[in-house]
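WARN retry 2 of 3 for item q-0093 after timeout on previous attempt; input resubmitted unchanged.
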Amino acid sequence: VQLQESGPGLVKPSQTLSLTCTVSGGSITTAAYYWSWIRQSPGKGLEWMGTISYSGNTYYSPSLESRTSISWDTSKNQFTLQLNSVTPEDTAVYYCAAVFHYSDNTRETYWGQGTQVTVSS
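OK item q-0093 returned
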């Protein structure tokens, strides 16, 4: 499975950040796959933002849930992140990732290369 993020590199404060992850080499509706957005701000660790499952269920970080929405377009094999009311603190490298859960409870993780998003006027 390969993942590729796309979207604007610069967003103005108070606007909505929208990123798309295009998946190749597998279908986003394949059982046991979970598709996530993760970010890393300057000088900080990785922060999980949210996940959409192979069946379309969504899960969000409590700290971001009020501003975050993850959706998918199965016809395009893509999933999308929307983050509302952004501030400069949302400046980060944004990654999409996939986790496949095997029946023996092991997992395999795939990462996109990441995309820099800067929030600035």
